[in-house]
Design brief:
Belongs to the 'phage' integrase family. This is Site-specific integrase. It comes from Vibrio pomeroyi. InterPro entries: DNA_brk_join_enz (IPR011010), Integrase-like_cat_sf (IPR013762), Integrase_catalytic (IPR002104), Tyrosine_recombinase_XerCD (IPR050090). The protein has 355 residues and is mostly helical. The protein has 3 domains: 56 residues; 102 residues; 119 residues, hpI Integrase, Chain A (Orthogonal Bundle), CATH 1.10.443. It has 15 helices and 6 strands. The strands form 2 sheets. A 3-stranded antiparallel sheet has the order 1-2-3, with helices on one face. Strands 4-5-6 form a 3-stranded antiparallel sheet. It is elongated. The termini are far apart.
Length: 355
């Protein structure tokens, strides 16, 4: 027996209605099809016609070849699938969820064209709170990763060539752009303000995160926030004074990038005073720490300082301690030393006389 479900969806362009028809056999789903409309009556009519066809022709197998799917529904599959969603970063997941609220989500994946992509980017840049072309670039690249696996992973048709046709135009007219290289380094005064602000926040009766300790660990170890909240007590070697960071970020490999770094005495002292109530040394959500950082910056009047900038600050301080670029790369985990040479080392040199 097929069932009908009509879902009301609020989008920037107005209210939409998604009609979904499902059929089960022996408590197992054997058919599902959905389509989005601007009117509820149209959605209901379409769903009833699908049910009628199923009654007349019989319910096809779920394994039968699928022809088309809305991009919004394809994104939902991608986000919910245990394989494609595995190791999905916070930024990419947030961008993909947001994409479902735009008109491009209502385009059939097999009918996606370069024009659809260009139109989406133009509309994004015309929003009241217009994003930078670098931000819109994320929309395009993350959507591409979804489109590319529509067939192999989910059995749906999708136009995998639309991006190749659109990107040259998007770049030529400045509708998308690569992120600018950041050279933001906090001053001594800003670091003091940040520590004071974080101490104030963690002293609140409802707070349970040692924000100040995590702040100092970020600088002392050059770890990313996600790495700090992931390392375990088993990763710590007190005898050697080292910490193993597992599966460190690497554009070429997602797994197996283990990196053992030396810990300064200050870092060891911070780690030793953490409670061993859980497996992780810092068993907190990276998103919670990041949100606390943003609120602190607003309260303390610190402008345009990202939490990730502390990683760069840590590398600069390593240089100022007298470590050479190879030693620094062992701690930061950079496989390409040119990254340090072009960014972190330059930052350290340019600010040595002003600090």
């Amino acid at each position: 027996m097929a069932t009908i479900h009509i879902e009301k969806i609020k989008r920037n362009s107005g209210i939409k209605y998604k009609a979904r028809v499902r059929a089960t056999r022996h408590n197992k789903r054997v058919f599902e099809k959905s389509k989005t409309f601007t009117k509820k009556t149209d959605a209901t009519k379409w769903a009833k016609e699908i049910v009628k066809e199923l009654d007349e022709q019989g319910i096809p197998s779920l394994d039968a070849p699928k022809r088309s799917i809305l991009i919004g529904d394809l994104i939902t599959l991608y986000l919910n699938d245990r394989i494609t969603s595995k190791d999905l970063g916070r930024s990419k997941a947030a961008v993909l969820r947001r994409l479902r609220s735009y008109d491009i989500a209502l385009v059939q994946a097999d009918q996606l064209s370069a024009h659809h992509l260009v139109r989406h980017c133009r509309e994004r840049l015309q929003e009241p709170t217009a994003p930078l072309p670098q931000t819109v670039y994320q929309d395009v690249t993350y959507l591409r990763s979804v489109i590319n696996v529509a067939g192999p992973m989910f059995g749906y048709l999708a136009n995998i060539h639309a991006h190749n046709e659109a990107i040259p135009t998007l770049v030529q007219y400045g509708l998308i752009g690569r992120s600018n290289q950041r050279d933001r380094r906090p001053t001594k005064e800003e670091l003091i303000l940040a520590e004071e602000g974080l101490h104030k926040r963690q002293s609140h009766r409802a707070s349970h995160i040692p924000l100040v300790d995590i702040f100092h660990i970020s600088i002392l170890t050059c770890m990313r926030l996600g790495e700090i909240t992931r390392v375990t007590w088993d990763d710590l070697n007190l005898k050697d004074g080292t910490l193993t960071i597992r599966d460190r970020k690497d554009p070429r490999r997602k797994k197996g990038n283990h990196c053992t770094i030396p810990l300064f005495s200050e870092a060891l002292e911070i780690i030793r005073r953490q409670t061993k109530s859980e497996e992780c040394i810092f068993p907190y959500k990276a998103t919670s720490v990041g949100a606390a950082w943003q609120r602190m910056c607003r309260e303390q009047g610190i402008i345009d300082l990202h939490y990730h900038d502390l990683r760069a600050e840590g590398a600069c301080q390593l240089f100022e301690r007298g470590l050479n670029i190879v030693e620094i790369s062992k701690i930061t985990g950079h496989r390409d030393i040119n990254v340090l040479n072009n960014i972190y080392l330059r930052l350290g040199v340019s600010t040595l006389h002003s600090r």
